């Protein structure tokens, strides 16, 4: 993996460990010669991840919509800042630039980005590993919900297993390096229902 896209909150949240792990993830990516692609801002966890990478000598590409740049939240110390016109163009560009995705704690935006990448993978539009760094159990309820979706027959087990999860950065990167995308298609025929 040459580049990983990280989705995360534009705030720090209530637990210091979120910022600590965001910084550690950026640092680890730099130490492992993996470039960081992220949303281009300098606030919250979105500022901590690139700072961790840059302080360890890593390369960081930010992708920021123009309307957010005008709010002066752009990170000015990046290796490269790509300015796009829309949120959709931002996600498309971040996908084009990366070999895998990691979600840190976040809110609506983080979940929307994560699930769009999962949906694209489920439909066979890419075969990249998609992962959650489950900092301090932040995503436990979401993981439980995904299992409920599978149990209730609304999500195939093979598709649920596309989402890699760990609370340890090195373990998560190991899982991502060894990921193989499912060969089962999304669509089923009536005999399988």
UniProtKB/TrEMBL annotation:
Top-level taxon of origin: Bacteria
Keywords annotated in UniProt: Cytokinin biosynthesis, Hydrolase
Coiled coil: none
One CC-aspect GO term: cytosol
Classification via Pfam families: Lysine_decarbox
UniProt EC number: 3.2.2.n1
SUPFAM superfamilies from the UniProt entry: MCP/YpsA-like
Known catalytic reactions: AMP + H2O = D-ribose 5-phosphate + adenine
BP terms from Gene Ontology: cytokinin biosynthetic process
GO MF annotations, alphabetized: AMP nucleosidase activity
Similarity annotation: Belongs to the LOG family.
Protein name: Cytokinin riboside 5'-monophosphate phosphoribohydrolase
Species this protein is from: Flavobacterium nitrogenifigens
